[in-house]
Design a protein that fits this description.
- The chain has 337 residues and is α+β, with helices and mostly antiparallel strands.
- The chain folds into 2 domains: 2-99, PH-domain like (Roll); 138-235 and 273-332, no CATH class.
- It has helices at 2-6, 83-99, 103-124, 127-137, 140-158, 165-178, 206-209, 215-230, 233-241, 243-252, 257-269, 277-287, 292-298, 306-310, 325-332, and strands at 11-17, 25-31, 35-39, 45-50, 54-56, 64-68, 75-78, 182-186, 193-196, 200-204.
- The strands form 2 sheets. Strands 4-3-2-1-7-6-5 form a 7-stranded antiparallel sheet, covered by helices on one side. The chain has a 3-stranded mixed sheet with strand order 8-10-9, sandwiched between helices.
- Strand 6 (64-68) and strand 7 form a beta hairpin.
- The longest helix has 22 residues, at 103-124.
Length: 337
């Protein structure tokens, strides 16, 4: 109201037209009670524009062109000599805009407060509930994306995964035979095997270079896959990385790169805890795979893995062939010899 009173006596001349097809008319422009009054040269009102609906077609330029909201065809042009009126209209428009209710801001404020409340509850009372909910809504595509991002970080420390073409084809053949997840051989990791979100199983090159038969690497792959089925690898990532990682993934669909870097280092330095031999027998039976080669690879004496040797599910049977001799030689050379 103060702004309206200040400009109540202000007048200016301008050019007005109802549509682009009409000829522009010289008019007198004045500011009324919450309206912009456009009159002809005989001071007869032609139209009234609500100040709340006045829009600028060319912000910051002169001559200034205004139009009523919703009808850009009707225009009012104020020349460079009418700077006082142009400035007055702009100030009134800003004042009206400030006075408008901001439902969008209220919605965002409400959303922010809701998220803050959820975060407070998750951090102080139910962190596992947040992780459980996050795991329930993360799609498989996102899991694969996280696994790929982790793999790229691990490769920075171990070297790029082995990719000799003939060896990769042989690895694909073995993977198809086992029905395994994505198998990746790494050249420099101290870990024998790892599993990542998204169905990635990482294996040490020594599993093909230090043994005489493919049953060893196949056994490690299937054991690692069974571990990933029993213990969601994404849950382990969220447990290790903290509640903030779960909150990021839930609200943005991403996990901070620094958290992924730290978790990649954790995976390569954690102490290995081989699973119980007794619990692995069904894994080998389902894959129609001999467990004895895997057992001796874990413990050359056989003492700690005796059940896998004595109760080998393929003893006396005829397990499906894993690879031909030629493919096994190719797989052994997957890292370039």
């Amino acid at each position: 109201m103060t702004a309206l009173k200040k400009y109540a006596r202000l007048e200016a001349s301008g050019l007005w037209r109802l549509s682009p097809d009409d000829q522009r008319r010289e008019v007198i422009v004045s500011i009324g009670d919450a309206t912009l009054i456009i009159s002809d040269m005989q001071d007869r009102a032609i139209t009234h524009w609500s100040l709340a609906a006045v829009q600028r077609a060319n912000p910051g330029k002169r001559p200034a062109i205004f139009y009523p909201d919703g009808d850009p065809n009707e225009t009012l042009e104020l020349g460079t000599g009418e700077a006082q009126m142009i400035d007055a209209i702009e100030k009134l428009r800003r004042a009206v805009e400030r006075a408008r209710p901001k439902p969008g801001r209220l919605r965002w404020l409400g959303m922010t407060l809701s998220i803050a409340a959820v975060l407070a509850v998750a951090v102080f009372w139910v962190p596992q509930a947040l992780i459980n909910h996050t795991l329930s809504v993360v799609p498989s595509v996102k899991r694969a994306e996280i696994g790929k991002a982790l793999l790229s970080r691990i490769e920075r420390m171990t070297g790029a995964s082995c990719s000799e073409p003939a060896g990769v084809r042989a690895l694909s053949t073995m993977r198809a035979r086992l029905g395994a997840d994505k198998l990746v051989l790494l050249p420099g990791t101290v870990m024998t095997s790892l599993h990542l979100p998204g169905g990635y199983i990482l294996l040490n090159r020594s599993l093909v270079e230090d043994f005489e038969e493919p049953d060893v690497i196949a056994g490690y792959a299937m054991v690692e896959q069974s571990l990933s089925r029993a213990n969601d690898p994404l849950r382990q990532l969220l447990d290790v990385s903290g509640t903030w990682a779960s909150f990021q993934l839930l609200t943005t669909g991403k996990i901070n790169g620094e958290l992924l870097d730290s978790y990649a280092e954790f995976l390569l330095t954690q102490k290995s805890n081989p699973p119980s031999p007794e619990g692995l027998l069904p894994v080998f039976a389902m894959a129609e795979l001999r467990s004895t080669p895997y057992a001796y690879a874990r413990d050359i004496t056989g003492e700690t893995v005796l059940p896998l040797i004595e109760a080998d599910p393929m003893t006396g049977g005829s397990p499906k062939s894993l690879l031909s001799d030629a493919d096994w030689l190719r797989l052994q050379n997957i890292c370039g010899g």
